[in-house]
Write a structure and sequence with these properties.
Layout lengths: L2 H18 L3 E3 L23 E3 L5 H30 L11 H11 L5 H16 L6 H8 L3 H11 L3 E3 L4 E10 L12 E3 L9 H9 L8 E2 L8 E6 L2 E7 L4 E7 L2 H7 L8 H11 L3 E7 L2
Antiparallel strand pairs: 1-2, 3-4, 3-7, 4-5, 4-9, 6-9, 7-8, 8-10
Amino acid sequence: MTVKAAQARINLANIIENQLGYPIHKTSSVKINQTNDEQYSPQGQQQLPYQVKAEATLLDRAHTRQEIQLIKRQENIETIMAMAMAFCPDVTGQQRPDFDWIERFISLCEDTANTAMQKLWAKILAGETVTPGTFSIKSLQTLKFMTQREADALQRCTSLCGFNEKDHSHLILLGFYKKPSLFDLLRKGNKVSFNLGKTPVSFPDILTLMDINLLYRKEIESAVLKAGQELALSFMNQRLVLKAKSNDLVLSYYKFTQTGDELKKLISTPINKAYKNILSTSLEDEFDVSWHALK
């Protein structure tokens, strides 16, 4: 047996003891993949090479496991609530959160032991306390089953995410094109696409958010912009204003779903510098591009 394999087995034994409350030991040389009668006891039960070693009965061991689970859940809840107190601003709350919402919140967050994910739960509780109705039960359910990898993908995408002030939604600009007219058919299909490969966001990140219903699956187009018409997007501490130089300009983007909009509020990330540069240089031919600092 290699050192790596031995360490993996030690780690697994530690996990088992941590979860069950009792150690597991090797009891025989029987291999799990044997197909002869040596695998079975005279009572017809399969003989396993490892068994939990304890004088306690199976029922007592089940009670112990339940107690361990209860303790861990209580610890998770208390940690999240302590974090929420730290995150909650000292402001006048509009009203108390709905009691049923609080109960659902506790039941959904109690199995979260990862510190980074606990912080997201804490921010939700603090935000809902300040402004009840901010986070839906659907968003809580999405967060419960969100992995750290998915949360990291959301974190990266927020650095490209702008807030559309007109319809109060978050989006990621992808490019634009000018609608062809009868006198300008040669421009058909002349679309400018932003190279997101120069940013921290990969296409798998986009697909990940689509799979968990934080982004709509299809690329969306804006209404046709006329010359002089403006579109404003807020990126945490900066505001981008685009003013069309000519008629018939259409922007394309990925849009966050309602659940995505709610969970996006948990993460405050400044706009990625490479993405900001891409927007400025790619849009300047057809738009007046201006950036303004937000307080």
